[in-house]
Design goal:
The strands form two sheets. A four-stranded mixed beta sheet has the order 4-3-5-6. A two-stranded antiparallel ribbon has the order 1-2. Helices cover 53% and strands 6% of the residues. The protein folds into two domains: 261 residues, 2-methylcitrate dehydratase PrpD; 126 residues, 60s Ribosomal Protein L30, Chain: A. Helix 3 packs antiparallel against helix 4 and helix 9 packs antiparallel against helix 11. 58% of the residues are buried. The chain has 463 residues and is α+β, with helices and mostly antiparallel strands. It starts with a helix and ends with a helix.
């Protein structure tokens, strides 16, 4: 029996009542995070172009696009909602698995639930929790950095997440779910070159995989077969895509007992995960030592090789951002902004924000390098970087996990503040009290009879 069957049985047979409170709470927090950042993504570059094309194609009115409100075929709705959720790079991630789970799971759950009708909030929470768990396990099993393999794992694995979530909501049999995952396997992709070239497809790659994953589930429902030996077969996923550089034991270790959704990191800043601890540590040092921007002479940031390749190279781009994507994937820009502005907000990652003269005047004073000690501790995942600030008051060094990391987790109030910030950053301002009403609905999601009510309430928030 292939290991994929064990994972499918876990996902299909786990009931809402089997979920620990921590997993339910994490699923709700993930839902809040993705809804909030999706609204923030409505004005991001690439969204209007993709939406215009898909609206032109039209099709059956099955599921509703968040914020905008048009009804489209379910796989196209899932694509657009996934794009919205990832466009600002403000969505959660898993620091060890190096994968964004919400951008595949939540858009799929919302789109398929509406197409089906009558999916309860309890069922939505269950599907979110078990699918995120499987997705994190896949990512955690990978033992090669994406900057070395060339894959972006959030995109590469998103098809599996979407196929599994859609299959569960469609009520597919165990065998059909395995086929759905096999069909998704036939469509995987997501390359690092899109990030290195700072293209708009960087933010679209997971959405493309989500579309394919949803398609795979509906194909399986129609009796289409896919590869059944995804994990242990002769041409299995890990062998074909990763040269077997994996630890398959991570797939089933503590399965059904330890739900990995509770170990997600929620971003306090709208930048790449590799920019999180450099930004958070800089903020910590500035506050701890009561530093003002004029006190800082220069900064040094030590990260791992993956972080350096992703968010420092090429230097001509990361030290002189010309596009929003350049800034989202730049440790020098993130640290410089935190020093000069004393914050790192959504407004700093806009066409206007990345051209701030004071921030760019300081950016060359941020020296980023590969720290061998950091590399040894974090050879693959998101590193806890080391930051040194050289100031008029002395030199100060630190290495802390930013707020939102599992070691320094978000509180309910932290997520509320992030949600309100993101929810108000869309193309339109929400009605007074609308954001709080959406949060309240998610807090009581287990009592909701039809999860499509959430989509309706979000869209009503904007008129």
């Amino acid at each position: 029996m292939d290991t994929i069957v064990e994972l499918v049985r876990f996902a299909k047979n786990t009931k809402y009542e089997d979920l620990p409170k921590e997993a339910v709470d994490a699923a709700k927090m993930l839902l809040k995070d993705i809804i909030g950042v999706s609204v923030a993504g409505t004005g991001a570059e690439g969204v209007a172009q993709a939406r215009r094309l898909i609206d032109h194609w039209g099709g059956r009115e099955e599921s509703t696009v968040l914020f905008f409100g048009e009804k489209l075929p379910v796989m196209h709705t899932a694509f657009l909602n996934s794009l919205l959720s990832h466009a600002r790079d403000y969505d959660e991630y898993h620091p060890d698995a190096v994968v964004h789970t919400g951008i595949s799971v939540i858009p799929t759950v919302l789109a398929v639930s509406e197409e089906r009708g009558g999916i309860s909030g309890r069922e939505a929470i269950r599907v979110i929790a078990v699918t995120a768990d499987v997705l994190i396990r896949f990512g955690d099993a990978i033992k090669v950095p994406g900057s070395e393999s060339g894959w972006i794992y959030s995109a590469l694995l998103a098809g599996f997440g979407a196929a599994l979530a859609a299959s569960l909501l469609l009520g597919l049999s165990e065998e059909e779910i395995v086929h759905a995952l096999g069909i998704a396997y036939a469509q995987l992709g997501g390359n690092q070159q899109a990030a290195r070239d700072t293209t708009l497809t960087k933010r679209m790659q997971p959405a493309l995989s989500v579309k394919n994953g949803v398609f795979a589930a509906y194909m399986a429902r129609e009796g289409i077969s896919g590869a059944r030996h995804l994990i242990d077969g002769n041409y299995n996923f890990f062998k074909l895509y990763l040269n077997d550089r994996c630890d398959r034991s991570k797939l089933t270790e503590g399965l059904g007992k330890k739900f990995r959704i509770g170990t997600l990191a929620f971003k306090p800043y709208p930048v790449c995960g590799q920019c999180m601890t450099p930004s958070g540590t800089t903020d910590y040092l500035m506050k701890t030592h009561d530093l003002q921007p004029e006190d800082v002479i220069s900064a040094e940031v030590g990260t791992n090789r993956h972080g350096y390749r992703t968010c420092v190279e090429p230097k001509e781009v990361k030290y002189a951002p010309q596009k929003v994507v350049d800034g989202q994937f730049s440790i020098p820009y993130s640290v410089s902004t935190m020093i000069v502005k004393r914050h790192l907000h959504l407004s700093d990652l806009t066409e206007e924000g990345i051209r701030d003269k004071e921030t760019l005047a300081f950016i060359d004073k941020v020296e980023a390098y590969v720290d061998e000690q950091v590399e040894a501790e974090f050879p693959r995942g998101v590193a806890r970087a080391k930051v040194t600030l050289h100031t008029t008051k002395g030199d100060f060094t630190g290495s802390v996990y930013q707020k939102g990391h599992p070691s320094n987790p978000f509180t309910a109030e932290d997520m509320r503040e992030k949600f309100l910030d993101a929810f108000s950053f869309g193309l339109k301002k929400p009605k007074e009290g609308a954001a709080e009403a959406v949060l309240a609905l998610i807090d009581t999601m287990e009592t909701v009879s039809d999860v499509s009510q959430l989509i309706t309430d979000v869209n009503r928030s904007f008129g």
